[in-house]
Amino acid sequence: MPQKTILFTAPYMIPFVDRFRPVFNHYGIQLIIPEIEERMEEDDLLEYAGRFDGAICGDDRYTSRVIKACAPRLKVISKWGTGIDSIDKTACAQYNIKIGRTSNAFTNPVADTVLGYMLAFVRRQPWMDLAMKSGVWDKIPGKTLGECTLGVVGVGKIGSTVLRRASAFGMTLLGNDIVEVDPHFVKDYRVEITDLDDLLARSDFVSLNTDLNPTSFHLMNERTLGLMRDCAVLINTSRGPVIDEPALIKTLENGEIGGAALDVFETEPLSKSSPLRQMENVMLAPHNANSSPAAWERVHWNTIKNLLEGLGIETLNLGEFTFE
Fold it and tell me: Is 51 a residue of the active site?
């Protein structure tokens, strides 16, 4: 079997690379593992152009320029996770480069994260904890989720799971999507499907669960943010560019919405000078809503499988390998 070389840049897999080496060694695969914090940008990837047959990546910027430079040697890009908005799919098709991903990879942990944010804001636990540890005995008013309306933008796998969980708390449920939502789901969970403007105007919580595409880029901008209630909280666990970040910062600074919970950002890592880091009504996380050992393990295995299949390698014997 001819030896293959892989550019290995998935941040969630790199710390455990020694667990996977027996698989790669078995199939005669060499690894190139650059230093990486969050993702490889276009210029970073261009430094390795022509040196690898396949890639295991995170949110690396596989632009048309990168794809062209890496072809014809590059045969497959295996994405760790679900979203492939950072990969130029048209260019990949032009150069016959396969794209692999894991569908429905992180539905449960992301949905749990959204519910956790909502509970934190209505029950005010982070703020009471901070006050208590500062020596303040202050009964901060709260409310229940059952008193609130949730609007979910993007009623796909994750969005529908968020709504399903929220229904157990007795929330009023609104949904919005550019495609038709399963009518049985809408009926069973009493979800009102409405247009975006109406959803924003009526919701106490707005959860963004859309993928990143031309229709969702800066979906939340100065105009749409201005439609939200002054008590409403915006939650983003989808993709950073769905929100126009400067517009959100301005909206928060002016007190036009009640707060935000952000797991993703337009530029990652989030700048240390970002005003978001100083806002008391904003909860932040480092793109970590997918955190789940069980989910990660499934994605690790499937990412390797997608890579091997993209290279035309038979994977019937993968079951003999275990990740411990």
Answer: no
